[in-house]
Design brief:
Low-confidence stretches: 1-62, 285-291
Strand content: 15-25%
Largest sheet: 8 strands, mixed
CATH superfamily of the largest domain: Calcium-transporting ATPase, transmembrane domain
Oligomer: single chain
Distance between the termini: 92 Å
Structural class: alpha+beta
Length: about 900
């Protein structure tokens, strides 16, 4: 007979028990195997005393009133304790409750991707044309049209499926870590591993990972706007509230997805995943909304505008053909083929692939793009506002000096410094060098290096009981800790020297002497913390005794100087914006090459004395902003934006959130808070400034690849229009028929267009300095018209001349078809760069492009020489000398592209 669950209380019915007015329906049978449970039954299952008890909840108990229970009752209900669950129990609950995550948005089904390829109005028109040719018993024409439709669908499917796969893969890069107490020790685990009953420790900047009942708090404020819409932070406390309290008044609860904005607390997890308040809302409102990026919308609008122009042109072409004596059927099929081949209906999908491939490439370099369009904006960045620690430096704070005040022993002083930290050691039994520690960077380094000097935090905590701890925050710039040892309470304050001195009863001269020492060491690149203490608990923040200083040194990353020089070559200005001491920031800036002779360093206090217009006048002369407040960082950002700059901002803390959100590109570091990551567009996992510069270069590469694809597709479209339209106006027989146009469009052009997504290494980003122009700039438009009109004019003149010379029309039309197909293929080599001459790079370096061109050449040869293809496409075998003429035309087309590129290079030098 199984023991009744200890969380079922009261009630008279042996089969039901009530908890705070909500009813549980309980089945007391013990199940030894999960697979014997009735299939289809929805159960919440708990382990209890090594026995499995199945509990089936009625609809009325979908929400449990933990906010109305005392902390003792909550822990009893969840069969937990303040020391946390043991690992075995946690694993059992993970198996029962599953993952602490919402149902992940599924990637678009492959069937849906295939169907999407037939949504284009032009594709529907082509389907109608195919149906019409079937009705007219033109089997060959119908077969080619449907084959072209199939190829288009397959190519579109490959492109979209690639993008879906890449974006789905990127989601696996980012994990949220959380501090949890298990077996009376703190650990950091993935938030997905949480189970009901886990005891959390949350502090400033943490995202609440699950619904939890507050156990203890210290000045805890939570932003619940994501859930309730309440704009002001809500104070939290451990006191129970009424069972009838609405969600906004449940001050004893923390809810998944909300944000800690001040203080810290401990809490016990009550619900995870879809059973949280946030999870229920997400489940109710879940629907698939796949918004196109603004870039896709822009290109789609552009394609629609081009479509209108082409529709008018095709209508004129159709009328001119009828007037010239062509029958309605032939002109209808030709007009539809020209329309479909001229409008780049697949361009938005192709652009998504280019963006996705670039994002994947950047991910391999530790840069995670949260918003696909961010890579486009990255390419236009010309100012980077960067923090210092961990981004420009190695983020490996080494303890440079321990400087106790007076005659105190170094290790005694260092012991109280270590006790003032807020870190978790996952393996305290190991050698200090192998400790796995989580916490603030400086505190982690301090604890680890102190361990190397014989001052062990785990050992200290056995003889020193932490009564109260207020962690370091950017606002107060210090941490307050109350320690009980040998029956006496002592308060320690550790933080910025100028702040700590404010607690101490020192003469002005003594304070100045200490600050002089701080400034001297800071100018050498050191970062300093001060320690003070007094007897008694936290309360009266005066009359502390100054204990001394600890100095840290964070060396620059080895490659940072070259990277900063690289950004300068790219036309990007790098500015340090930090809360650090002026001397430390200045030393790092000089060593990194950011602060050049004649440039200025300004502090937050100096900045506060200037009017915005005064600061704007000297903005270009400033390379370092030190000791700035969060609102000042936003002010600096806005001044740069006001002057027309595209600004990227790096940050890691809660205080960086406003600036990250206001920036054109917000860049969070991987070790930063969830606030920073949530407000950012890009996350650099290795905290490295070099990764950010790589992201900017990748953005520029993506912009370039987009432009190449646009020029390639639209110049070919213009080519077809002018060639066919010119022939009709001149009264000549059409040089290419509808099936030949479809063949070129669906078989020749598709492969190079896809290959441009993988283009890399031709264009030197350093040659494109400053803010990058828009996608459809003057150069792109002229290239489209210049290449399209120029090549079609050459081909049309040659066509008319050959017919006039009396050559066989079948040979001439096959020659024009083959030339039209091949010169567009070979032009792709010249379009690998819109700036650099083809004679300055290896044209075969892009293996995808080379392979695509070879496939196109093989297909064109098959269309000319294979008998069944000759029958379908109405071609004839070309003599060898005519084939030579085709390659001559291809070279002429390449030269035409190069001439247009040369004109723009020459114009750029003049300007």
């Amino acid at each position: 007979m199984s023991r009744r669950p200890n969380f079922i209380q009261g009630g008279r019915d042996p089969d039901t028990r009530s908890v705070v007015g909500r009813r549980w329906k309980v089945e007391y049978r013990i199940w030894n195997r999960e697979d014997v449970w009735p299939k289809g039954t929805k159960n919440t299952v708990y382990y209890l005393d090594m026995a499995k008890v199945k509990i089936e909840l009625t609809p009325e108990v979908s929400e449990r009133s933990f906010w109305s229970l005392s902390t003792t009752e909550v822990l009893k209900t969840l069969d937990s304790r303040t020391e946390g669950l043991d690992e075995m129990e946690a694993k059992r609950r993970q198996k029962l409750f599953g993952c602490n995550c919402l149902t992940k948005t599924q990637r678009l089904a492959r069937t849906a991707i295939v169907l999407n390829q037939f949504k284009s109005p032009l594709i529907l028109v082509l389907l109608m044309a195919g149906g019409l040719t079937l009705f007219l018993r033109e089997w060959v024409d119908a077969g080619v049209i449907f084959a072209a439709l199939l190829v288009n669908a397959l190519m579109g499917f490959w492109q979209e499926n690639k993008a879906e796969t890449v974006l789905a893969h990127l989601r696996s890069y980012i994990h949220t870590r959380v501090r949890v107490r298990r077996e009376n020790a703190e650990h950091t685990i993935d938030a997905e591993e949480l189970v009901p009953g886990d005891v959390l420790r949350l502090s400033l900047g943490d995202r609440v990972p699950a619904d939890a009942r507050v156990l203890t708090t210290n000045n805890c404020l939570v932003d619940e706007s994501i859930l309730t819409g309440e704009s002001l932070p809500v104070p939290k406390k451990e006191t129970a509230v009424a069972v009838s309290a609405p969600l906004v008044n449940r001050t004893s609860m923390l809810y998944s997805g909300t944000l800690m904005v001040e203080g810290y607390c401990t809490a016990v997890v009550t619900s995870i995943g879809e059973h949280t308040e946030f999870g229920r809302i997400a489940t109710l409102t879940a629907r698939r909304e796949r918004e196109r990026t603004p870039l896709q919308k822009t290109v789609t609008r552009f394609a629609a505008w081009i479509g209108i122009v082409i529709a008018v042109f095709v209508a004129i072409l159709f009328s001119a053909g009828l007037f010239s004596g062509y029958n309605v059927k032939d002109m209808f099929v030709l007009a539809v083929a020209v329309a479909v081949s001229s409008v780049p209906e697949g361009l938005p999908v192709a652009l998504t692939v280019i963006l996705a491939v670039g994002v994947e490439r950047l991910a391999r370099r530790k840069g995670i793009v949260r918003k696909l369009l961010a890579v486009e904006t990255l390419g236009s960045t010309d100012v980077i506002l960067t923090d210092k620690t961990g981004t420009l430096t190695q983020g490996k704070m080494s303890l440079a000096a321990v400087l106790p005040h007076g005659r105190e022993e170094q290790n005694d002083f260092l012991a109280d410094v270590v006790l003032s930290t807020d870190v978790v050691i996952d393996n305290p039994q190991a050698d200090p060098k192998k400790w796995r520690i989580s916490g603030r960077l400086m505190e982690v380094s301090l604890v680890q290096e102190a361990g190397g000097r014989g001052v062990f935090l785990p050992k200290l905590l056995k003889t020193n009981k932490i009564i109260e701890h207020v962690p370091f925050s950017s606002a107060q710039k210090c941490a307050l800790t109350t320690v009980e040892r040998r029956g006496e309470k002592n308060t320690l304050v550790l933080g910025a020297p100028e702040v700590v001195l404010g607690f101490c009863a020192l003469s002005k001269d003594k304070q100045n002497e200490i600050l002089k020492q701080v400034n001297h060491r800071a100018k050498t690149g050191e970062r300093l913390l001060a320690l003070a203490s007094r007897c008694g608990p936290v309360g009266d923040k005066t009359n502390f005794t100054f204990r001394g200083l600890v100095a840290f040194r964070d060396p620059l990353r080895p490659s940072i100087k070259a990277v900063v020089e690289r950004t300068r070559t790219l036309g990007i200005k790098t500015v340090i914006v930090t809360g650090d001491h002026q001397g430390t920031a200045e030393a790092v800036a000089r060593e990194a090459g950011i602060l050049l002779p004649g440039e200025k360093v300004i502090t937050g206090s100096e900045m506060a004395k200037l009017r915005p217009d005064e600061l704007e006048k000297i903005l270009d002369q400033i390379s370092v902003f030190a000791r700035v407040l969060p609102e000042q960082k936003v002010e600096i950002l806005n001044l740069y934006k006001k002057r027309g700059h595209i600004v990227a901002v790096t940050g890691d803390g809660v205080n960086d959130g406003p600036a990250l959100k206001a920036a054109d590109i917000g860049v969070a570091v991987g070790s930063g808070t969830e606030v920073a990551k949530g407000a950012s567009d890009l996350i650099i996992l290795d905290d490295n400034f070099e990764t950010l510069v790589a992201a900017v270069e990748e953005g520029r590469r993506i912009l370039g690849n987009i432009q190449k694809t646009i020029v390639y597709l639209l110049s070919n479209a213009a080519d077809e229009l002018f060639l066919i339209g010119g022939s009709l106006l001149a009264g000549l027989a059409l040089p290419i028929n509808a099936l030949q146009i479809l063949f070129v469009n669906f078989f020749s052009d598709s492969f190079p267009a896809i290959a441009f997504a993988f283009e890399s290494g031709v264009d030197d980003a350093a040659e494109r300095t400053g803010r990058q122009p828009s996608i459809f700039n003057k150069k792109i438009k002229i290239l489209i018209l210049g290449v399209g009109v120029g090549t079609s004019a050459i081909l049309f003149i040659l066509y008319a001349w050959l017919l006039g010379r009396g050559y066989q029309p079948e040979i001439v039309r096959t020659f024009i078809f083959a030339s039209f197909s091949l010169y567009s293929l070979f032009a792709a080599f010249a379009l690998r760069s819109l700036e650099v001459s083809i004679f300055r790079y290896n044209i075969f370096a892009n293996k995808f492009l080379t392979g695509g061109v070879l496939v196109g050449v093989a297909l064109t040869a098959a269309a000319i020489y294979l008998p069944f293809m000759q029958t379908i496409l109405k071609t004839t075998a070309l003599p060898l000398n005519w084939v030579g003429g085709i390659f001559v035309l291809a070279i002429v087309n390449i030269l035409l592209v190069e001439i247009v590129k040369w004109i723009f290079r020459a114009r750029a030098k003049i300007v």
